């Protein structure tokens, strides 16, 4: 099967890292197509970045539909454009935040999230509420690392993530850590080893869920709000979306 | 004061109608600038339309910042791009769904929403949850009118909205109706008269709230998640967002 | 328009202060009638004080109806008698707690409340639940100031409020402070300046909301539970309520 | 032990009926003092009636404290003045709505409420939310009987209550009925027999709970928000509340 | 009346202690039958212990039905087997956690729980959610005492419970403590005296509630999910459950 | 990998059917060990049946630990013994209700459940609350089929399930159906074809999730409440649980 892993930001190095992490957990027969949009922000650290990135996600879904795709992963912890993306395809579309929450809830009764910046913690809080997972999460914690520091200064970033995770372990009465950024996808094992707790990371969780859904032949429902959008005109720079 | 009322779709006729409705309730000294993006969908009837429209909303906030603006209204019932927009300005930004919910909750203990299409009802449900208003809303009802029918076939649209509102009045044990589409902004009084219930409409509610906030000198907080987005590069068609 | 701002306690000095704060934000054409009941507690610091004050609120609504009133504000942070008051008039009736919560939610994703006494914090908690705003409020904090200290010892009171607000700013991960007592209505700007965060105060918020609602011709629904109470006999000291 | 059962309205016939029902379930050694305030509404059918009745409840608590009382019951389904009453005494104070909800939750996983008027249903809804019982209650149903019809036209009232209860049994997927008015206290057994479902009535439930709490020596906490109100001046018709 | 107080673990010393505590609050005419299953764990400190203990509870309900029983108490703070037990009898069945929560909510607006082990705190959290009491409980605290230490080392256990309760009093802004283990049933008065707060203990609360329900002739509903289980075959070691 | 699929009831024919359904979706390298306890009820249709079945589930986990197992599935829609089972192993343990809810939430915004008996609907409601999925589920519907009718009278059972699913499709405004019984595992495709909606079935969903978790090396956390139960004595028929 072919899974299109969409890094919603435009930093190719992060796309590569995400693709490598995805491949690491994929089944033998799974083809991982790691992509990022041609247009958009180099990292996602605000509601605005996320809104722009959602367009890139939709473009990549459209490209994926042309290329033939069995499932999609949106590899940013805010799950940008998730519902829009689902409207554009019958294939399953999985956000890495929802994937991580679902998986974490299966191995631990309570978890904490360790994310990059405090300001994006609110996005995680909102997703917890929306996905019904708020009661499972003890605390959203920020290591206060700009996203691209994960690329430019990985050692220091790793240490701050571990330090914050250890605080979570000591203080939060939890059974697992959820990593709150797609850019941490390569660190899962090392963090788990350093912290001594199960660590759930979204990119890998989403790839495994995508494989599971394809096995089950489960596809995005075309009944109700996820049906193909009504055909209509778009104008200006979005005129190519007209149908 | 100057309020920029942003119609997130690109249909100028709807922008005019929204602007007229806004002007109708504005104070003498209030200047209403009704605008719509140059790029985007001609109507908003899906998650995808909403995601694209959010970019147009952000563009219009940026234009408004150049022009000098005291408050913004996002005149689509899904409040597309609301948090992103708030990051881009210190001026208040008000979505018409939240405005309508807040106002309705001040005059009635329970209300129902009458919207256009059933498929967008889920967006209203999600906003009710997010804004803490779910317990106030008895039912989200759809008149099953495509948005542009409000422009092209206003008489028939009006009659279907009234019919659905009368069903709500008869069955839902409510004190008020909330209209679930910015394109209904000119119909408020007529619907209220026909239905015999208070009717809350979001464009007008948001304009009045915006005036109230400017009076109070309340501005979007720049502490926490609504602070100006971190400066960064954007590439491709969004490169003009780089800072 | 004429707005009757009801201080539910009987301390005229506080009524004056509230009236002045209301006038400070009111539009040019707005007449502020600041009143307090003839009977009731000199301050409101308990459920019992609030229950008694609710009668005074209702008396003032009745007086306001005789005098002609376009909107009412209940200027105590527990919103005492709110639903009863709404039954007695078609004019909008706004509690300062609900006004402050609604306004704060439009400028910040999360806020904390700084109130007078810890024992009344529970009233704020209950209103947060009832108005659907619990998720928005990080913490209800008390400066542990008896209400009348705001009159008798304003300097010390101010300093304690600022100190508690600064703790909220440092610890609560918030974008705004909500002041939890009508008696703080004159301190908004000074506290905001001292704390360096947006501060939302309920009396002023409610006046601006009331003006907005009158602009919109929104009136308390007479359908359902807010309809005029069934006519009936009252006996004893409340016999004047018979209809 | 001595339990003061306070009918918050001023209709002596209803007080008698409530007292009789209370006595019917009381233990041998329990003295039931059924009282009603000297001042207030003859029945409680609105938020306003409830606000006024709360004063009468507080007066009766004060009288009960003079007389020596082991526990209080507030015998109106809106639990008017409950928290205020608790501040005024160390004895337990139990509202009949909360008593009925607690008891019903012990014998059935889901119940429906059958109350008098639709307009007071909202009070039951609010209490269900506040007491954490919303998930237990399938539906709040109204027989649309004015409260005093229970006195003046008991046969017709009984039949309407039974009819509505039978609809609840047929449609609501429930295990029990909760009667939503203190004035139905004498009908419990007859309704249960006619409907063929367990019926929980609040006055009797509250008396039994009060006895239980006295057995346990549980008293209203004087730590936190239920502590005796701060001593202060009251003026006008409430000056006798000054301490 | 005859109340069967079931200690779900098999430690007879704890059964005796629970029986004594139950008798201490029972009315003169109440017969307390304190029992424990012949099979099961010697203490309950995990989900697994609880699952096994649920069978013992059901066996004791069956034995109680043979012997004639007016009400049952399940004397373990996880309320193991509660719904199953209710299916097996028309008599009321009360768990000590629910009993304690209900009673605590009647005397204090907020409480904290002091339990034995941190790992069983999650069971209390889940029950708080299920019973609608989560908002009432500020914190679930563990004294980190293995359950049988309450038998073997009562003095040390008492001191740790008091120490944790004093922390709750100092930090949690509460009006009462709920004791989170049936094995603390004999300590209620001593803890309350040492802590200076009302203390609610479940065994005694449940006995008093059971007496109340029997007075009211309230029985477990046989309509809906608590009806007698469908007759069917059981095999193996559970074949005696066949009907 | 080796997945032990535990049918918690003792009907071997159902175990076979479940095993076949599991095998149908399993990856080539996955070994499915379908088992049922030696002791317990022949079907699960009540809280009591579920409590007894939980013991059988634990026995099968213990047997699985001896045999070497990579993941477990509990193949009854009430997820009996789920937390206890998790304590007994490091391997993932997945209930079919949670698996179905998670998967359904990834392909549809709202779903309805079609289960066997109305009386067990309450179990589904409780799990929806506990797993945070209540907002996703529009309605729990019962086809009113005894569980073993699925074995003895499959054609009639199938028709009733389809009929109820069609009602859900027509009335519930949903995007998917969740099948609410492990005994329907073989019917998924046929029901989906007959109803024309995506159908999510728990056994298959859980097997796919289990494979995903094993791929990810995610194991049940041994920190906190899912840690191995404290070693202790069990007596009587459960003495073999002593450690």
From TrEMBL, chains A, B, C, D, E, F:
Under PANTHER family, the record lists: PROTEIN DCG1
Gene3D superfamilies per UniProt: 3.40.50.12500
Enzyme class, spelled out: isomerase
Instruction: Please give the name of this protein.
Output: Hydantoin racemase
Instruction: Give the family per the record.
Output: Belongs to the HyuE racemase family.
Query: Where does the secretion signal sit in this chain?
Result: none
Q: Which domain of life is it from?
A: Bacteria
| Pfam family, any one | Asp_Glu_race
Q: What is the species listed in this Swiss-Prot or TrEMBL entry?
A: Amantichitinum ursilacus
Record EC number: 5.1.99.5
Its recorded reaction(s) are: D-5-benzylhydantoin = L-5-benzylhydantoin; a D-5-monosubstituted hydantoin = a L-5-monosubstituted hydantoin; D-5-isobutylhydantoin = L-5-isobutylhydantoin
A GO MF label: hydantoin racemase activity
């Amino acid at each position: 099967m072919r899974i299109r892993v969409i890094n919603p930001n435009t930093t190719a190095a992060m796309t590569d890292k995400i693709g490598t992490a995805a491949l690491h957990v994929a089944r033998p027969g799974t083809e991982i197509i790691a992509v990022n949009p041609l247009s958009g922000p180099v990292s996602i650290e605000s509601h605005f970045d996320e809104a722009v990135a959602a367009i890139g996600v939709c473009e990549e879904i459209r490209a994926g539909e042309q290329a033939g795709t069995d499932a999609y992963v949106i590899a940013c912890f805010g799950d940008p454009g998730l519902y829009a993306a689902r409207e554009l395809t019958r294939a399953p579309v999985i956000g890495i935040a929802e994937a991580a929450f679902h998986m974490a809830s299966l191995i631990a009764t309570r978890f904490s999230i360790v994310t990059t910046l405090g300001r994006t913690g609110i996005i995680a809080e909102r997703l917890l509420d929306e996905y019904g997972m708020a009661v499972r999460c003890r605390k959203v914690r920020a290591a206060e690392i700009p996203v691209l520091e994960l690329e430019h200064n990985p050692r220091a970033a790793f240490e701050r993530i571990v330090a914050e995770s250890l605080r979570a372990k000591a203080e939060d009465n939890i059974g697992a850590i959820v990593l709150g950024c797609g850019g941490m996808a390569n660190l899962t094992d090392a963090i788990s080893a350093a912290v001594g707790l199960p660590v759930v990371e979204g990119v890998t969780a989403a790839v495994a869920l995508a494989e599971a859904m394809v096995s089950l032949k489960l596809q995005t429902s075309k009944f109700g709000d996820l049906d193909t959008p009504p055909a209509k005109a778009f104008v200006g720079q979005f005129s190519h979306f007209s149908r």
